[in-house]
Each structure stands twice: as C-alpha cells, then as structure tokens.
Amino acid sequence: MPRLTALVSAAVLAATVALPSVAGAQSLSPDAQARILDRNGETTGTAALTQGPHGLLITVEMVGLPPGWHAFHIHQVGDCSDPEEGFRASGSHLGLGEAGQGLMSPDGPYAGDLPNIHADEQGRVRVQLFTTFASLTGAKGPGMTVLDEDGAALVVQETPDDHLTGPAGDGGSRLVCGVISQ
Ligand SMILES: [Cu+2]
C-alpha cells in the first residue's frame, strides 16, 4: 500500500517539522533545557529554563499529547530512560518530603508542583510558566534545587493535577519526560 506509506511518512514529517523551537518565546538565553520524550522514546518536545533573581522561567513546546488538560511537574530525578515503564525512574515531585503536595494546599506546595497545561485538538502545547518554588542551582531550600546531584526532569501526566491531593495531585500516568540539563 504505497499510498498509505506515503501518508504515514507525511504525518511523521509534519510532526517533526511542527516540533517548534522555544527560542521565540524567550529573548533571554536559557540556562538549561530539556528534550522531551514520549512513551516510545521519541522526541516530542523541547523546554528552555532560565533562572531569574526571583524564580525559574520554563518555556515548553510539545506535540502529540492527548487533547485536554494535563498535570505538569518537575520530578526529582533526571532520568527518563524507562519510557515503556512509564518514566518511574524520574521519581516523585521535586521537594517531596519538604512540604505537602499541591499549589492550593495549606501544607504545599512541593518545589516541583506547577500549574496544569492544556493540549489543543491537535495535541500541541505551547506555554511559558514561572515558579518561585524551584531553583536551577540556587539553594532555595532543601530539595528545591533542579540541577542537584541526581538532576531533575519535566513530566506531563495523563490527567490534570487537582493541586491538593498528595503525593502526586491525582495526575495519572506519566505521558512524557524530559531530563533537564545545562
Ligand atoms: Cu508528576
């Protein structure tokens, strides 16, 4: 079926070409970045992270996600080597044990908690977020440093974070993962 093959090739090419650069959203040069992998281990997005005096700016572009809202977190370990197992190697949220889970929790948040993100009908995400709870290299507090010895990863989950429920905000299984590196 050569026609089907051509269509599939075109779809793959379109996804590759559509994979955007985050450069346009940040005039500041990023201090760290992440290549985001899907559950097949294929690149599905990029992130740029810039540390400012008051917090961390995160710019993300992704394709191929299920349309709708998704939890988005910084996880404790910079390891996305197990896509088939659902990225368990990335650990729990950055800062686990230092606070309760959830941006809206009186005991929270963990340093890795972030607002939810939305994928459009084509599965595309393009967003810029800012957090004062995590720091790339600065000692904001115990467990809050992104580029510590075991690194950290950006993770998108199946369902939105409820911003209250520990330890993971009821965000469902992990869809994509990107190791944050300098
Ligand atoms: Cu998470």
Give a description of the structure.
The protein has 182 residues and is mainly beta. It has one domain (21-181): Immunoglobulin-like, CATH 2.60.40.200. Helix content is 9%, strand content 29%. It contains one helix and nine strands; from the N terminus they run H-E-E-E-E-E-E-E-E-E. The chain has a seven-stranded antiparallel β-sheet with strand order 5-8-9-1-2-3-7, with no helix packed on it. A two-stranded antiparallel ribbon has the order 4-6. The longest helix has 17 residues, at 2-18. It is globular, with a radius of gyration of 16 Å. Residues 4-20 have low confidence and may be disordered. Copper (II) ion binds at residues 71, 73, 75, 93, 155, 157, 168, 171.
Record the SSE blueprint:
Layout: H1 2-18, E1 32-37, E2 43-51, E3 56-62, E4 68-70, E5 72-75, E6 117-119, E7 125-131, E8 153-157, E9 174-181
Antiparallel strand pairs: 1-2, 1-9, 2-3, 3-7, 4-6, 5-8, 8-9
Copper (II) ion (CU) is lined by residues 71, 73, 75, 93, 155, 157, 168, 171.
Within CATH, the superfamily carries the name: Superoxide dismutase, copper/zinc binding domain
Helix percentage range = under 10%
Quaternary organisation: single chain
Contiguous helical run count: 1
What top-tier CATH class fits best? Mainly Beta
CATH architectural group: Sandwich
Structural class of the helix and strand makeup?
Answer: mainly beta
CA gyration radius, whole angstroms: 16 Å
Strand fraction:
25-35%
Q: In which order are the strands of the major sheet placed?
A: 5-8-9-1-2-3-7
Bound molecules: copper (II) ion
> What's the shape?
globular
The figure for the number of domains is: 1
What is the terminal separation in angstroms? 45 Å
Helix and strand succession? HEEEEEEEEE
Unreliable stretches (pLDDT < 50, length at least 5) are 4-20
Q: Kindly state the number of beta strands.
A: 9
